[in-house]
Design a protein that fits this description.
single chain, Immunoglobulin-like, 5-stranded mixed sheet, 25 strands, 658 residues, 15 helices
């Protein structure tokens, strides 16, 4: 551990300040992952928690039967945090799979995928909404090889140290024991190959680009450490050093050949996810975890090889087995303790174990470790029962199965470090996601806080502001928001809101056909907050001719009594109604929809025999209007209009006489 402490600053000096995440995490997509959109989307967008870099093949699209779909050249927006690719051809109804690959700021390539469907009756192919951010498969295999090589060298040296103790004890009794050399050269060679492969995967053949990224510098450190270890391993086995090996001890030289690999442990401690969450504690537990698993595996491999060589001296082999068993107990405790701390650092709660890819992989690792522990217990029991004269020695097949299990632990570990851990729920998008399909506009006041929302396929976007929205209290940091959704079948669920800019929040929502209600509890001190209830009828439909027909009908009305109420602090009372005599033309020509704009959508029909039709309109100047229209004569019956800091309601009374 002293050597680790000495080398850590040296490696650390080569690296910049670590990023907030070891991977670029996908925060949102358009179309929303896992949802069916009514029409073919004009583009695909992917939002990340940090700027990324891309190439021409960053985003690909295939149908549910595997047919490639053309996409425009992907582009970076919003400072590199949004990847966008146009969909030039109309997509037929059915399911689609998006695959993406980007390069994070630390230089690591990250891949993932998500699915969506086109057509309201289309089935969405099974996938995890949002995708699973994971390194390419070849990177996972190369990291597995790197960990395996590390285990053969470091664990082999530990096994040689245990073997040397038994050999010295035998020599003290004038018994000569011949022990095989640990697999230092093989392990170091595997590590060198893995390091070179990781370098090529990161920068291709442009090796000179490795120092440009944190990941590249870590790979350089690891490859160099394995190269030095490989050279020392060859020197240790050189015939001319036989006298030196006898004088110093072969196990001492073996341990010396492992010292460069301390840099590998340090590099992995700095690369791993726990370090990004807690630089000191995360680094320590990662190094401890890796060393414990590596020594457990590598030492067991060496001890089993020695036991097979000593089949005629089963008593000494059993002594070696008991020494290893005591070491294995310590290693097991370290593995369990460090793994538990890592899980606490990375997982936001128990639900993440089954709701995230990282959690599922972690559960698989726990299962494999449990199997290995069971095999270890069985192996120790077999060690006690095996007769001294057993032809197979004190170790049986259980030990080899245990070795295979530990190799599996390293494989799952390689996968685990290549999967992005659950991102913090407070991570904000650089901008709100683009709506998919028709949008249902909604708005109201929560006390003095203006609440404007748009609901589209698979998502809700809410914008909040106060009477002084340019101050800190009106910014996103000044708001406290909690939201629930009551679906058409009267089931209520909490909404997981994520930031998407100044006073902006978004959440994935699977709207149900019929009336959906969103309740927002908002505070924004020093302003008076409250509860906002947003009515979201679903699905909307388009009728381009309806609003122009309404305008024509209203302009033909000579007299109408409008009762209007305005409030800037809404808590259930819209204010006192004021009568406003007017003609239909005078009223509508003063409204924001006078020219037929506002992207109107038909929300629903109401009343007996569908006597009323509700229309929703949203305007660029942060206004939302809902009109309730007489289905027969197309006159306006009621109007609700939300502008920044005001809620305006109006009812219309038409003369009944000639």
């Amino acid at each position: 551990m002293l050597a680790v402490g000495a080398l850590t600053p040296l490696v650390w000096l080569m690296l910049p300040t670590p990023a907030a995440s070891a991977h670029a995490t996908l925060l949102g997509t358009t179309p929303p992952a896992g949802y069916a959109v009514p029409t073919s989307p004009p583009q695909l967008t992917l939002d990340f928690d940090e700027p990324v870099s891309i190439d021409a093949a960053a985003v690909t699209l295939t149908s549910s039967v595997g047919a490639a779909q053309p996409l425009g050249k992907p582009a970076l927006l919003l400072g590199g945090r949004r990847v966008s690719a146009a969909v030039p051809e109309h997509l037929a109804w059915g399911g689609y799979q998006v695959h993406w690959q980007v390069t994070a700021q630390d230089g690591d390539p990250v891949t993932g995928g998500f699915t969506f469907a086109v057509g309201t009756g289309s089935a969405v192919p099974a996938s995890t909404p949002g995708g699973a951010e994971v390194d390419p498969p070849q990177m996972i295999v190369l990291r597995w090889l790197l960990f395996s090589g590390f285990a053969l060298v470091v664990g082999g040296a530990a096994g040689a140290w245990l073997t040397g103790r038994v050999v010295r004890e035998a020599h003290s009794r004038r018994i000569t024991l011949d022990a095989p050399a640990p697999l230092l050269r093989s392990g170091a060679l595997v590590g060198v190959i893995a390091g070179i492969g990781l370098a090529v995967q990161s920068v291709g053949l442009r090796i000179w680009r490795l120092p440009d990224t944190t990941s590249g510098r870590l790979i350089m450190v690891e490859a160099a450490a394995f190269l030095v270890s490989l050279a020392l391993a060859f020197i240790v086995r050189a015939p001319r050093l036989a006298v030196l090996r006898r004088a110093i001890g072969g196990q001492m030289l073996a341990v010396g050949a492992t010292l460069p690999l301390i840099a590998v442990a340090v590099a992995e401690g700095l690369r791993a996810h726990p370090h990004a969450h807690s630089p000191v504690l995360g680094f320590v537990v990662t190094v401890a975890h890796l060393l414990a698993v590596a020594v457990w595996l590598g030492a067991l491999v060496h001890v089993v090889r020695v036991a097979r060589r000593w089949r005629g001296d089963a008593g000494w082999a059993r002594l070696l087995g008991h020494d290893y068993a005591r070491l294995a107990v310590i290693l097991l405790l370290v593995v369990l303790a460090s793994g538990t701390v890592e899980a606490i650092l990375l997982l936001p709660g128990f639900a993440a174990l089954v709701d995230t890819t990282y959690g599922v992989v972690l559960l698989v690792k726990v299962g494999v470790v449990a199997v290995v522990i069971t095999l270890a217990v069985l192996g120790r029991q077999q060690l006690r029962r095996t007769p001294l004269a057993s032809a197979g020695g004190p170790f049986g097949r259980v030990a080899w199965v245990e070795i295979a299990g530990l190799v599996g632990v390293l494989a799952v570990t390689a996968l685990l470090v290549s999967v992005a851990p659950p991102g913090p729920t407070t991570t904000a998008l650089a901008a709100p996601p683009a709506p998919t399909g028709l949008v249902v506009p909604a708005g109201t006041l929560a006390g003095e806080v203006t609440v404007l929302a748009q609901a589209s396929t698979g998502e809700l976007v809410v914008h909040l502001s106060t009477p002084a929205s340019d101050t800190d209290a009106g910014g996103q940091s000044g708001f406290q928001v909690a939201a629930t959704l009551t679906l058409a079948e009267d089931t209520t669920h909490p909404l997981n809101l994520a930031g998407c800019g100044q006073g902006c929040y978004t959440a994935p929502v699977n709207w149900r056909t019929g009336a959906n209600s969103v309740s927002l509890t908002v505070s924004a001190a020093p302003w008076h907050g409250g509860i906002a209830h947003l009515d979201i009828p679903w699905p909307p439909r388009s009728d381009p001719a309806l609003l122009p027909t309404v305008l024509i009908a209203m302009r033909a009305v000579p007299h109408v009594a409008v009762r209007e109420a305005t409030t800037s602090d809404y808590s259930g009372n819209p204010g006192t109604e004021q009568p406003l005599p007017s003609s239909g033309a005078q009223f509508v020509d003063a409204e924001p929809y006078a020219t037929g704009g506002g992207n109107p959508v038909v929300l629903r029909t109401l009343g007996e025999n569908n006597a009323e039709t509700e229309i929703g309109l949203a305007f660029p100047d942060d206004q939302v209007v809902r009109l309730f229209i007489n289905t027969g004569d197309h006159r306006i019956l009621r109007e609700e209009r939300v502008t920044p800091n005001h809620l305006i309601t109006a009812t219309f009374v038409y003369p009944t006489g000639p």
